[in-house]
Amino acid sequence: MNREKCPCCGYPTLNRRSYDEICILCDWQDSGYSEQTPETMDGGPNGDYSLEEARRNFAVHFTMYREKPRSIPSAFLVKKRILIDAYQLLDEDNEENELIKWNEIFMLEKELLLYG
């Protein structure tokens, strides 16, 4: 499986880079403009968020936004953490189990989409 890493959260959630795809984990819309100057807001699809700020926000709230929306149930955040753990396992082992890991990731992503 070949996916691209999101410029905000750093996980392999994108099929292609710079095609306005929205990350399932952090909600960053990858227009490709922000990476040259991550500290500035580009006024694009991510509004008044710079890539640098969105990265800091994700580290705290598991979303690009400044505050975790109150309407997000804690079970949804738990599902995000489980998915993050699955992404991290991709880098740890050899390629022998990669297909099994991707199948688990696809299942977790589907659950996250259905839950959200």
UniProtKB/TrEMBL annotation:
<protein>
    <recommendedName>
        <fullName>Cysteine-rich CPCC domain-containing protein</fullName>
    </recommendedName>
</protein>
<dbReference type="InterPro" id="IPR025983">
    <property type="entry name" value="Cys_rich_CPCC"/>
</dbReference>
<dbReference type="Pfam" id="PF14206">
    <property type="entry name" value="Cys_rich_CPCC"/>
</dbReference>
<feature type="domain" description="Cysteine-rich CPCC">
    <location>
        <begin position="5"/>
        <end position="64"/>
    </location>
</feature>
